[in-house]
Amino acid sequence: MLMHMVLIAADLWDVVGPEVVPFGPKESKVVQAFEKKKQLAMSKIVLSLTPSQLSFIAGLENPHEIWKKIKSLHRSLSINSILSLYCHFLHISKSPTKTVIDWITQVQAATFELENTPYPVSDLDPILVLTDSLSLKYEALRTVLDTLPITDLIPHNVIIRIQSHETLLDLYREKTAAQVQSGSTDSALVAVYRKRGGDQGARNVVCYRYGRQDHYQLVCLSPSVSHSSQFSGHGSTSCNSSPLFAGHVQDINLDNTPVDTTYAF
């Protein structure tokens, strides 16, 4: 309001309030007078600002745009706007779909908005917002932060520790996924192994080449060793001496009942 009156008294409001551009070449006296009044208006506006407010009008060269920016900042400093900013700041939470980087950036942006009000936040405020939104996976991090000296409890240190903890969690998730994938592969191999005899069914299979148990004809490695010397205690099991084609075996159950099974080797 005061600046508005100063500009009117200096006969400069016509180049600040309404966005009017005179017609004519740049060399004309009307255009040159208009540009001179714009420069004077910009000088009065900028000189009335505090150093902390200059960053908001950086890069603006039109007094009309500068006035609109200052007007919006003035309205944002009202008590209702500040309360709204604080409510937004205190209720920033990390959703499961939001990354840690996006969440930290959102908290930093809200902190910056409040720092330019008459009631800026302290260093502990963003730390409380960040730690309060963490899930139970970050409980160890909370314990570490509780042991930090008060001089080290600053937003920058807390953000670095949160990002480091998130990196460790990502590595743990990748390792767990790899173990689950490996376990699934091992289970499939065990299922195939048990289907073909396995540890529990070793006596259920015989080699049709020499009548020995514990392996098939296709995987017979020592045909010169007799059945009684290599597999003593398993009992003798006779097998059909008729020629068989590769891939066809005859399983023998524990009660010596033959079961024909065709396997794909």
TrEMBL record:
Keywords: Signal
Signal sequence region: 1-18
Name of the protein in question: Uncharacterized protein
Organism per entry: Meripilus lineatus
